[in-house]
Amino acid sequence: MKQHETATNVAVIGAGTMGAGIAQVCAAAGHTVTLVDVSAEALERGRKSVAKGLEKLVHKGRLGEAERDASLERLTFTGDLAAVGGAAVVIEAVFEAIAVKREVWEKLSEVATPEALLASNTSSLSLTEIAAGVAHPERFCGLHFFNPVPVLPLVEVVRALQTGAGTLERAEAFVRGLGKTPIVCDDRPGFIVNRLLIPYLNDAVHALAEGVASAEAIDSAMKLGANMPIGPLALLDLVGLDVALAAAESLHSEFGDPKFRPHPLLRQMVRAGKLGRKTGEGFFQYS
Ligand code: NAI
């Protein structure tokens, strides 16, 4: 695995699904990483997830055992936000709630170094709104990683209204150093990927509800006829129906365009607790 030419100190706030993945990728690229979370349990889960993720790369032959050990040594797990003080890059990946993010950024504004690149991994909140509560909003932007972080190559680099041009350049260089591809876009709901993907997934639910074909048939059709690597309903199960519903609701309320309106079946499935892979059942069954 390629090591970062200018290895630096990175702080990742939030050790959940995304934070752990981002921390893993940063450590594997040669950065020293501090992973911060308010929950000791989340930190422990994050530690296990990173170790498992690095182990997977060793099994696939993409990472040597010595590199794995060195990556693990570059990681620190802590509940103390003040540990962010030494970081040149700060990436926030806490719960997707504006109040939580604003509170975290208020504290981060006090402890982050004056030159640090500041980024949020939000997928549906307004970066411009988060930036309004950041002490140096010109150094702030969105770094939207995709799940699973170690696998998917894209990072949307999102320009908030306040983001400085130099910040975007720094963010792009940082993302390239992780071996990922940055794509710059403006702070608009859904950025690029979710803006295009969510209506497509929602339409698949619509087709299913109308009885156009079975779930299996809809997914096979899109794989065989449109060369999709995964069918839309299986993708919904993977993303989580609750996550997709929240994204559709957010796009719908921001744009007011009916093309983003979640189909009632999607809502009903979420109400029934059929959230996809994570609950063992969505449009398909999982054992
Ligand atoms: P998660 O629920 O797995 O993890 C969030 C973590 O933040 C939890 O461990 C929680 O303890 C921690 N946290 C909450 N408040 C905190 C605070 N004040 N200080 C420090 N840590 C705190 O969430 P997930 O899925 O990792 O999402 C995180 C962010 O990434 C959200 O903004 C989400 O929109 C975004 N995102 C999620 C994707 C996904 O597929 N799950 C994909 C791309 C972005």
TrEMBL record:
Keywords: NAD, Oxidoreductase. GO terms for molecular function: 3-hydroxybutyryl-CoA dehydrogenase activity; NAD+ binding. Its EC number is 1.1.1.157. NAD(+) binds at residues 14-19, 37, 96, 101, 123, 147, 278. It comes from the Bacteria. It is an enzyme of class 1 (oxidoreductase). SUPFAM superfamilies: 6-phosphogluconate dehydrogenase C-terminal domain-like, NAD(P)-binding Rossmann-fold domains. GO terms for biological process: fatty acid beta-oxidation. It holds the Pfam family 3HCDH_N. The record marks 144 as: Important for catalytic activity. Residues 9-187 form the 3-hydroxyacyl-CoA dehydrogenase NAD binding domain. Residues 190-286 form the 3-hydroxyacyl-CoA dehydrogenase C-terminal domain. Belongs to the 3-hydroxyacyl-CoA dehydrogenase family. This is 3-hydroxyacyl-CoA dehydrogenase NAD-binding protein. It comes from Truepera radiovictrix (strain DSM 17093 / CIP 108686 / LMG 22925 / RQ-24).
